[in-house]
């Protein structure tokens, strides 16, 4: 869908998200790691996240830990060039906000300089100082609690969080501390639906759920998961709306078959010489110098 022939979509802003929370309008968020995905998603969603999930989805890593700031910059720039109407959020990858306020501000500020509207970082109480430092520099921050993929080794795998009294109450406390520190929204991932509902009800800022039940202020899924482009096991919280992996393979298979039987390219995919030049080319013979 091209914006050039239509009325441009109004840019989504952080104040707008807060207004939607107050009015009960649900927020739609997905990921994009390149310009094609951004152009597909932008007319439909409210927030585009350039996620460090690019590591799993596009780069072949087992988790997000190997993703660097340089990698994130590369993918963010590709998405930002499409000038999306959606709010553009960039993930702070592992070790980009664990290294002191100065480096955290520099890394996050670099994302804004490359076109992001905000950054997202994982973790609760331990990250409050960094959140405050960023907010003090007018860098908008989206928090992320629950199943935080960068903590996969500490958690012992990708497991549902908040299933004990201590962890559930700590999550609620962390959510409010992040709100007080200045986060404009929170992603709640991989937690019981009742816990996410209580967090959403008690916070004034929007919550965006992924594997956190239906009562959050909005929902996020990875672009490739929604379109069925990922192979193998899908998490319980993923609903694929088409089997993109199979559809793409079928299209490529038809193309390959046409090549092998000489049906591609056809006349409609070929350029033609003007009649006079076609005659000259057909009657060309090698000169003595070119035939040596």
Number of helices, where a helix is a run of at least 4 consecutive DSSP H or I residues: 12
- Overall pLDDT: 94
Tally the beta strands: 8
The secondary structure category is: alpha/beta
Largest sheet: 8 strands, parallel, barrel
Gyration radius, to the nearest Å?
Answer: 24 Å
CATH architecture of the largest domain: Alpha-Beta Barrel
- Which spans have pLDDT < 50 for at least 5 consecutive residues? 1-5
Strand order of the largest sheet: 1-2-3-4-5-6-7-8
CATH fold title of the largest domain? TIM Barrel
Helical proportion, percent range: 25-40%
Whole-number count of domains:
2
> Please, what is the CATH homologous superfamily of the largest domain?
Phosphoenolpyruvate-binding domains
What is the chain-wise order of helices and strands? HEHEHHEHEHEHHEHEEHHH
- What is the general shape? elongated
Active site: 189 (proton acceptor)
Pathway: Cofactor biosynthesis; (R)-pantothenate biosynthesis; (R)-pantoate from 3-methyl-2-oxobutanoate: step 1/2
Binding site for 3-methyl-2-oxobutanoate: 52-53, 91, 120
Protein name: 3-methyl-2-oxobutanoate hydroxymethyltransferase
Task: Considering the chains and any ligands shown, give keywords for the structure.
292 residues; alpha/beta; TIM Barrel; eight-stranded parallel β-barrel; 39% helix; elongated; disordered N terminus; methyltransferase; magnesium ion binding; Pantoate_hydroxy_MeTrfase; cytoplasm
């Amino acid at each position: 869908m091209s914006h050039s022939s239509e009325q441009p979509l109004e840019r989504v802003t952080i104040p707008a998200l807060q207004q939607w929370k107050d009015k009960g309008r649900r927020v739609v968020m997905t990921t994009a790691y390149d310009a094609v995905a951004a152009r597909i998603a932008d007319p439909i969603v409210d927030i585009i996240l350039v996620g460090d999930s690019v590591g799993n989805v596009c780069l072949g890593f087992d988790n997000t830990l190997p993703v660097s700031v340089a990698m994130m910059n590369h993918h963010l720039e590709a998405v930002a060039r499409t000038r999306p109407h959606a709010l553009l959020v960039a993930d702070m990858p592992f070790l980009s906000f664990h290294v002191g306020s100065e480096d955290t501000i520099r890394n996050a500020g670099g994302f804004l300089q490359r076109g992001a509207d905000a950054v997202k970082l994982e973790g609760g109480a331990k990250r409050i100082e960094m959140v405050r430092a960023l907010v003090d520099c007018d860098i908008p921050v989206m928090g992320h609690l629950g199943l935080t993929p960068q903590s996969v080794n500490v958690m012992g795998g990708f497991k549902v969080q908040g299933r004990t009294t201590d962890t559930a109450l700590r999550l609620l406390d962390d959510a409010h501390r992040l709100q007080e520190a200045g986060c404009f929204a929170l992603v709640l991932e991989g937690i019981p639906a009742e816990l996410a509902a209580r967090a959403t009800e008690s916070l004034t800022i929007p919550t965006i759920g992924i594997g956190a039940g239906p009562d959050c202020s909005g929902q996020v899924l990875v672009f490739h998961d929604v379109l069925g482009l990922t192979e193998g096991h899908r998490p319980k919280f993923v609903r694929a709306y088409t089997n993109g992996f199979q559809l793409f393979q079928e299209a490529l298979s038809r193309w390959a078959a046409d090549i092998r039987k000489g049906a591609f390219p056809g006349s409609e995919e070929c350029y033609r010489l003007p009649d006079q030049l076609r005659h000259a080319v057909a009657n060309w013979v090698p000169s003595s110098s070119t035939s040596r």
